[in-house]
Amino acid sequence: MKLSEFELDVMHYFWKQTQCSAKQIHQWIGEQKPVAYNTVKTIVDRLEEKGAIIRVGKDGRALLFQAAVTQEELTPSVLPNFIKRFFGGSAKGLITHIIDDDKLTDDEIEYLQQYLKDKKKQ
């Protein structure tokens, strides 16, 4: 499933909530950046067409939706395009960026070291 950057932004709200309406999504996104309700409604409709969200009921006249896919299910289809767009297709560039810019805890560093050791054995 291929999603645009804005569709992914909207999906984050569906992943945080059990169910919500396009109006609620518009209100939450409106706190971050100005966007028309019709734009959000169009994105919600597209996400439903793509099968990323499903209708689960009504609240008055408003349709309620919930995520039909998890973030983990969507990551494999989104990550390669992200790496291509931002790091010229280099996973090495992404990993370097994360390590350099992120404040890794000792536990996270230990996890990464063990993960790489295990990966090398494979």
Automatic annotation (TrEMBL):
Give the protein's recorded name: BlaI/MecI/CopY family transcriptional regulator
A Pfam family reported for this protein in Swiss-Prot or TrEMBL:
Penicillinase_R
Q: Name the SUPFAM superfamilies on file.
A: Winged helix' DNA-binding domain
Give GO terms for biological process: negative regulation of DNA-templated transcription
Question: Could you cite one Gene Ontology molecular function of this protein?
Answer: DNA binding
UniProt lists the family membership as follows:
Belongs to the BlaI transcriptional regulatory family.
Q: Which UniProt keywords apply?
A: DNA-binding, Transcription, Transcription regulation
Keyword Transcription included in the entry's annotation = yes
InterPro entries xrefs = BlaI_family, WH-like_DNA-bd_sf, WH_DNA-bd_sf
